[in-house]
Amino acid sequence: MQTPLLCVADEATFWPALRWTDFDRMPGRERTMVVVPVVGMADWGLGHALDTEEVLLTRILREASLRRGDLPLLVIPPLRFVLGPHPGCAFPVTPPVACALIEETVLSIKRSGFTKVVLFNSSPWNEELCDAVARDLRIEHALQMFCINLSALDLDLHPTRSRSRRQVQSLAAALGGAGESGPAEAPSAESVLKAAADRLAGFFREIHGRPPLADGGAILPAQVP
Hints:
It contains six helices and four strands. By secondary structure, it is an alpha/beta fold. It has one domain (28-208): Creatininase (Rossmann fold), CATH 3.40.50. Helix 2 (52-66) crosses helix 5, helix 2 (52-66) crosses helix 6 and helix 5 (165-176) packs across helix 6.
């Protein structure tokens, strides 16, 4: 019997769906992107469940993975316990705990032989956290780190900054099956999903085009002329 997936995912690129023999035969680990989804739990005032971030992010990620072509890509299950300073957030953790969770996860990926890691974050409250952790992992552990936020896909959940609330509401209503559907002039969920997935797949192609870090990622002392 097939084991159900831990979240919405493209099984061909979902890390837990692969066997150890798949990893043993996997070539070019230094060029394989490993995506770490970072999602919070919050009431964003859209009438949806607290896992709306995960519903949005994992579905977009799955669609982008299906559009990847021949890009080497792996995706792990989402990290669900992160910062949540807004009153609508649920189950938040402190900054040291959130940093440690991401760092421990990424270092486990490195121990498996992968060095190109993408933090794909849905929460407006965790954008700076991902940037800071990615920078520290690059400096301290010679990893090639990248950050992509859901807001970069024109789907911003920020309560005051967002200019895409109608798009978010349309997609969340279609994927979550509950909550308000939004005004009649809101864009269709299908078009919103396609646009976001296409843009994310484009980011993946850009990241894949970056060569591995020189000197194994080591930061060498500056040469003084």
